[in-house]
């Protein structure tokens, strides 16, 4: 894979990396160890501002949540690019963990986290297929509706 291939794919898909949005100290945005890179949880931020606040099944629709999850995945790619120097070093997306701020009777977390999974599959093709958990939670930091973590295998 040539240098800049994933950046070209992002452009082709019309996707923008709005980050990176690093976490507060003493946290790292990405830890790279033994051929694996794992991101801290990414919220749906564009230009430093949260774009989707509230709870699914209450003030946020499934489609809004799906779009927020896509933004979270793009923010994960932004911190991965900053840590790795190039997204072309991503050999495979291994797993995605999605947290969805959910009303007690909301059960469509997978449909929300599909927003992140679709972005990763679109960007990386077969290498973007991954395992996943979609977890409903009572609340997320800063009232974000969705938070996504991504773990990838890294080429040396």
CATH superfamily heading? RutC-like
**How large is the share of residues in beta strands?**
25-35%
Global outline: globular
Tell me, rounded to a whole number, the average pLDDT: 96
Number of H- or I-type helical stretches = 3
Q: Tell me about the largest β-sheet.
A: 5 strands, mixed
Straight-line distance between termini: 13 Å
Q: What Rg do the Cα atoms give?
A: 15 Å
CATH class identity: Alpha Beta
Number of strands: 7
Order of strands across the biggest sheet? 1-2-7-5-6
Order of helices and strands: HEEEEHEHEE
Kindly state the percentage of residues in helix. Answer: 25-40%
- What count of domains describes the coordinates? 1
Structural class: alpha+beta
What does this structure look like?
- The chain is of the alpha+beta class.
- The chain has one domain (5-154): RutC-like (60s Ribosomal Protein L30, Chain: A), CATH 3.30.1330.40.
- It has three helices and seven strands.
- It has helices at 5-13, 62-84, 109-124, and strands at 30-33, 36-39, 45-46, 49-50, 90-101, 131-137, 146-154.
- The strands form two sheets. A five-stranded mixed β-sheet has the order 1-2-7-5-6, covered by helices on one side. Strands 3-4 form a two-stranded antiparallel sheet.
- Helix 2 crosses helix 3.
- The longest helix has 23 residues, at 62-84.
- It is globular and about 45 Å long.
- The two termini are 13 Å apart.
- The mean pLDDT is 96.
Quick rundown:
With 156 residues, the protein is an alpha+beta fold. The protein has helices at 5-13, 62-84, 109-124, and strands at residues 30-33, 36-39, 45-46, 49-50, 90-101, 131-137, 146-154.
């Amino acid at each position: 894979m040539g240098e800049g291939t994933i950046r070209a794919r992002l452009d082709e898909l019309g996707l923008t990396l709005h980050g990176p949005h690093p976490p507060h100290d003493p946290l790292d945005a990405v830890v790279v160890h033994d051929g694996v890179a794992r991101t801290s949880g990414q919220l749906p931020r564009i230009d430093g501002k949260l774009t989707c606040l509230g709870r699914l099944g209450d003030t946020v629709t499934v489609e809004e949540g799906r779009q927020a999850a896509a933004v979270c995945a793009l923010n994960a790619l932004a911190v991965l690019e900053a840590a790795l120097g190039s997204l072309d070093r991503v050999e495979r997306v291994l797993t995605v963990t999605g947290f969805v701020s959910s009303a007690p009777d909301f059960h469509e977390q997978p449909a929300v986290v599909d927003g992140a999974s679709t972005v990763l599959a679109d960007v990386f093709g077969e290498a973007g297929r991954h395992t996943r958990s979609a977890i409903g939670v009572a609340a997320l930091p800063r009232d974000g509706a969705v938070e996504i973590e991504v773990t990838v295998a890294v080429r040396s």
